[in-house]
Amino acid sequence: MISHLDLVEEARAILPEGVFQYVATGAGVEETLTAAAPAWQQYYLRPRLPRDVTAVDTSTTLLGTKVSGPVHVAPTGFQRIVHPDGETATAKAANETGSLLVLSSRSTSSLEEVSAVAGPWWLQAYVLRDRDLTAEIVRRAAAAGAQAVVLTVHTPHVARKARSYEFDTSVGSPIIPELATRDDLGVWQAPDVTLEDIQWLAGLSGGVPVVVKGILRGDDARACIDAGAQAVWVSNHGGRQLDGAIPSAIALSEVVEAIDEEVYVDGGIRTGRDVVRALALGARAAFVGRPVVWALAVGGADGVRDLLNGFREDVEETMALTGCTSIDEIGPDLVTRS
Ligand SMILES: Cc1cc2nc3c(=O)[nH]c(=O)nc-3n(C[C@H](O)[C@H](O)[C@H](O)COP(=O)(O)O)c2cc1C
Q1: Is the CB of 106 under 6 A from ligand 1?
Q2: Domain named FMN hydroxy acid dehydrogenase: which ranges (predicted)?
Q3: Is residue 292 part of a domain?
């Protein structure tokens, strides 16, 4: 698969500087962003040898939905600023590769455009100051085919970014015009989200299972599940929110130990080895954010398809080299921390 660094350089060469910096930036002085990818590399792989690895099966399930592998598309907003086909292209590519798509509620393609070409998909949502509007969006997404809602909780306040950026916010046909056409999410988003909101969303009639994204502690994971979430997602928003926050790779084990439900993870996942490390630490699946945006910028739907296929092939190779023929065989004995 294409190296992440090469992908970034290809994207940088074609994107306007202000757009490139919007995708690339972290918060603060980018401590958490910088730490994300190297944190996975602290876990060395311990191959089980010799093993018969003639047939390796990367398929698995997420909340019961069958998918071709353990790496999927994290929600990223404003995709039409990097490519005219935006989220619709990403949805098509995810569908073609048997991957799950999580659509940002700051999508610049409409629910209808996306659902027409998507395979399995979930909607990422924020609790908005207007809770009725929040409920309406979740119901509309469920009616359009979303199989779950991913509630992002790590943006109670929108952090200042490290780099200056600019882009045209009036592109495409957004799901929530207010959210997609204003860069300032803080104006719309509720700053008072609590476990009660999870309870409320989980109980919405016409709703779907709730996954909570942005959890970095075991006690919070437990509380979210007790409030009605069906799964949690370890994430620090790609280093774009609390700078200095613990890398997902380090936070993952504590969260996995705290609950029996599915745990997903994102942040700095750049190779199939990283995905296998995440699974060995107990994640059900890994998600990628920036790599998908760069691949979309460079090659539209084809670019994202090649990226996702590349990730799956890399996972398959890592499984073979570590002596695993199915996802279930990837266990904690496969990694050791340096
Ligand atoms: C340009 C960009 C936009 C993002 N937009 C959203 C969003 O709308 N909602 C959300 O929950 N997370 C958003 N994220 C965070 C991603 O879902 C994900 O947590 C993060 O990108 C994972 O880290 P990675 O980029 O290192 O793979 C965004 C990230 C980026 C880079």
Answers
A1: yes
A2: 1-338
A3: yes
Q: Tell me the residue range of the domain where 124 lies.
A: 4-328
CATH number of the domain bearing residue 33: 3.20.20.70
Q: What is the pLDDT of residues 112-170, one digit of tens each?
A: 999 999 999 999 999 999 999 999 999 999 999 999 999 999 887 889 999 999 888 77
Give the residue whose CA is nearest to atom 4 of ligand 1.
Answer: 76
Under DSSP, the state recorded for 267 is: S
CA distance 69 to 57: 8
Q: What amino acid is encoded at 332 in this protein?
A: P
Weakest mean pLDDT among 162-176, 251-265, 277-291: 162-176
User: What are the φ/ψ torsions at residue 166 (nearest 5 degrees)?
Assistant: -155, 145
Establish if 333 belongs to a structural domain.
Answer: no
> What is the 8-class DSSP label of residue 332?
G
Q: Report the atom number in ligand 1 closest to the C-alpha of 235.
A: 19
| Ligand 1 pocket residue status of 270, Cβ below 6 Å | no
User: Within a domain: residue 18?
Assistant: yes
Contacts of 78 (CB under 8 A, 6+ apart): 22, 104, 106, 108, 167, 169, 171, 180
The protein residue whose alpha carbon is closest to atom 11 in ligand 1 is 152
**Contact yes or no for 77/125 (Cβ under 8 A):** no
Ligand 1, atom nearest to 213 Cα: 11
- Tally of domains in the chain: 1
Testing ligand 1's pocket by substitution, the residue of 121, 176, 237 carrying the most ligand atoms inside 8 A of its CB is 237
238: left (phi over 0), alpha (psi -120 to 50) or beta: left
